[in-house]
Design goal:
This protein has 10 helices and 9 strands. The chain has helices spanning 21-34, 52-62, 77-87, 106-115, 134-150, 167-174, 183-189, 213-227, 230-260, 267-299, and strands at residues 7-14, 38-45, 66-71, 92-95, 121-129, 159-166, 194-201, 305-311, 323-325. Residues 9-172 form the Glycosyltransferase 2-like domain.
Length: 327
């Protein structure tokens, strides 16, 4: 299949991005004129409270290659990406952010690597970041290393959501039924051949990011709990270690009393031991609660998202069990 026969679908989550959307659309129109392949874009409005939806309606009316899906409320970026893949109709799908930090210039390079047969999934890796602080870059590297140390699935360091997915990869991701979706882990879990392409990330064009350190912490926690049982297993090891230490200490106290007649340490050491063990028990219960909470959410069988309105080229399969709402 030649480049002129291909259609590449861009999937772009949107949450309160009224300032970024006009800039994105202008850049998309200019880039599309230079690309040797056809392209369309599917926006996913993730419950925006500003005028983002009104802009999406306007753009879809003005351009046949612009589509949108609008949620009934905010479901999160991971779900928005999944909904976009459900409704994207192209031979391959490129996931992008609307804030212009994923440059359009990298898309043809993704397509070239994919078309050469070198990879079924091409992901972008930043050469530099003009906006993120040194602390954020350091915590990001720390997360990737920690995740890869604990999880059975290995994440390529620096690989984000900016990537091209072959249609077979998209179909594989769509077949996954889980509701707690950590997309970076799912990209790696489905397998297929992958290739990294570096790019320079510009500063955010407009608006402010909705992510903060607390949200990023919860995002990292979701990823680890979704792809590793190590947090559960570690408490078994800690329990054995504490039990052995308690046995050794108890034996020492008994021998001291029987042989030397030493007084048994008093309430201070006893209170410290009780508080230490109580704290460990509360932490272990909290870890169990994280896993049980996710099991509870999965067993409800609710749809992944609810669509309030949409104008799309592709209708998601009714048997996917993911989306509900307006058809």
């Amino acid at each position: 299949m030649t480049l002129s026969d291909l259609t590449i679908s861009l999937v772009v989550p949107v949450y309160n991005e009224e300032a970024s959307l006009p800039l994105f659309m202008e850049a998309f129109r200019k880039a599309r004129e230079t690309w040797p392949f056809a392209a369309d874009v599917t926006f996913v409005n993730d419950g925006s409270s500003d005028s983002s939806l009104a802009l999406l309606r306007y753009y879809s009316e003005q351009h046949d290659d612009v589509h949108y899906v609008s949620f009934s409320r905010n479901f999160g970026k991971e779900v928005a990406l999944s909904a976009g893949m459900d409704h994207a109709a192209g031979d391959a799908v490129v996931l992008m952010d609307v804030d212009m930090q994923h440059p359009f210039e990298a898309v043809p390079r993704f397509v070239e690597v994919w078309q050469q047969g070198n990879a079924e999934m091409v992901y972008g890796v930043r050469n530099a970041d003009n906006e993120e602080t040194a602390m954020k870059r350091w915590t990001s590297r720390l997360f990737y290393r920690f995740f890869n140390m604990l999880a059975h699935t290995t994440l390529p360091e620096g690989g984000g959501d900016f990537r091209l997915l072959d249609r077979k990869v998209v179909d594989a991701l769509r077949s996954l039924p889980e509701r707690n979706r950590f997309m970076k882990g799912l990209y790696a879990w489905v397998g297929f051949t992958t290739c990294a392409v570096s790019y320079d990330q510009p500063a955010r064009a407009a608006g402010k990011t909705s992510f903060n350190y607390w949200k990023l912490w919860n995002f990292a926690l979701d990823g680890i709990v979704s792809f590793s049982t190590w947090p559960l297993r570690v408490w078994s090891y800690l329990g054995v270690i504490v039990a052995l230490l308690a046995f050794v200490y108890g034996t020492w106290v008994v021998l001291q009393t029987l042989i030397w007649g030493a007084n048994v340490p008093g309430y201070a050491s006893l209170a410290a031991g009780v508080m230490f063990l109580g704290g460990m028990q509360l932490i272990s219960i909290g870890v169990l609660g994280e896993y049980l909470g996710r099991l509870f959410m999965e067993t409800k069988g609710r749809p992944l998202y609810v669509v309030a309105e949409k104008k799309v080229a592709r209708v998601a399969s009714d048997d996917s069990g993911k989306g509900a709402g307006q058809s």
